[in-house]
Design a protein that fits this description.
Layout: H1 3-25, H2 29-32, E1 38-43, H3 49-65, E2 68-73, H4 80-92, E3 97-100, H5 109-117, E4 121-125, E5 137-140, H6 143-158, E6 165-169, H7 175-188, E7 206-211, H8 216-229, E8 235-238, H9 241-253, E9 261-266, H10 269-276, E10 282-285, H11 288-305, E11 311-314, E12 318-321, H12 333-338
Parallel strand pairs: 1-2, 1-3, 3-4, 4-5, 5-11, 6-7, 6-8, 8-9, 9-10
Antiparallel strand pairs: 10-12
């Protein structure tokens, strides 16, 4: 055989091998990732300590299971476009499953449906999609219960004293915000609400309601607006603890930090410390590390046996306070610090 024929044969073999390799890569994660299962985690942001802890839990479980974890986040709470792009990128990267905390619970659904149609398991963490059935499963705190706990606590403290309530909420229409808001008013006994309601309810003693995206600075501004509307506010519900700390700053600046009681949801280490310091009266502690680690394991199980997880898994919630009330189940600050976001 001439050297020219040998060279042509070698080139043809190389091209054929490359074509086979590309085709194989397009078939799934096992080929494109050297047989390693790929799991995706998409959070609302990568700066909120809640999602930092969630990522920590996912990475720890991924390392233990020997799988590859891809992570992404929105640029801000409400950034649906970045989350859609992340889903598409993870599907193209061969992810067997994706864990998602949706910023826009309705707008994300078409991207989720496309991923599921390609055989990717999608599990919502913390925040239900709208509808919840858009994903394979949900691992989350019962956010309505979380709201009820702080509402019941606030009522036990306030008793029959006249109350003027400010509600510092999440974005309009986001399921987790609706559930916590409505749960609080239900627990306080200020309004009739159920966890099936898709819109915020209100009550006569709610004198101000402001969306602040769970952001500390925006919540401070929102509370300043509320105090301008009614300087006699004496109870403040907040969507999370960064929001609560923003509210506290606004109250302290106005010389009203002892006038209004603040209650919140999350139970992060900083938030529980704020309970110890008297800035927050009570908070409902949830467990994002548990959500994420359980979610990773569910996807690993799917990769191994082909069975997808379904339905809702309640990852628990505990009321944390330094001043317990008779008839209201709670744990003390030390418990909260020992278990913050574990």
């Amino acid at each position: 055989m001439s050297s020219r024929v040998v060279r042509i044969a070698a080139v043809c073999f190389a091209v054929t091998s490359l074509a086979f390799s590309v085709a194989a890569c397009g078939k799934g994660s096992s080929n494109s990732n050297n047989g390693q299962v790929v799991v995706g985690l998409i959070t609302k942001t990568d700066t909120n300590p809640f999602f930092v802890k969630m990522k920590e839990g996912a990475q720890k479980q991924a390392d233990a299971a020997g799988v590859k974890l891809l992570t992404a986040a929105g640029k801000f709470d409400g950034d649906n476009a970045s989350q859609v792009t992340a889903i598409e990128n993870m599907v193209n990267a061969g992810a067997k499953g994706i864990l998602l905390t949706a910023s826009d619970t309705k707008a994300i659904v078409p991207a989720v449906e496309k991923a599921r149609a390609k055989g990717v398991e999608v599990i919502a963490l913390d925040t239900p999609t709208d509808p919840q059935s858009a994903v394979d499963a949900l691992f989350a705190t019962n956010n309505f219960t979380a709201g009820q706990l702080i509402g019941t606590y606030a009522k036990a403290v306030q008793g029959d004293k006249p109350v003027k309530i400010a509600m510092i909420d999440l974005n309009p229409g986001v399921t987790v915000g609706v559930l916590r808001h409505n749960g609080f008013l239900s627990g306080y006994g200020a309004a009739q609400a159920t966890q099936d309601m898709a819109q915020y309810v209100t009550a006569p003693n709610v004198v101000c309601a402001q969306p602040a995206q769970g952001d500390q600075a925006k919540s401070q501004t929102a509370m300043e607006t509320c105090l301008q509307k009614d300087p006699d506010i004496n109870l403040v519900y907040t969507i999370n603890e960064p929001s609560a700390l923003g509210v506290y700053t606004a109250l302290k600046t106005a010389g009203k930090e002892n006038q209004a009681m603040i209650v919140s949801v999350d139970g992060g280490c900083t938030g529980v410390q704020a309970v110890r310091d008297g800035k927050i009266a009570a908070t409902s502690q949830q467990y994002p590390l548990k959500m994420a680690s359980a979610g990773v394991q569910a996807i690993v199980d799917y990769a191994k046996n082909g069975n997808k997880t379904s339905g809702y898994t309640d990852t628990g919630v505990t009321l944390i306070t330094a001043k317990p009330q008779v008839g209201v189940d709670s744990k003390d600050v030390q418990y909260g610090l020992d278990n913050c976001w574990g």
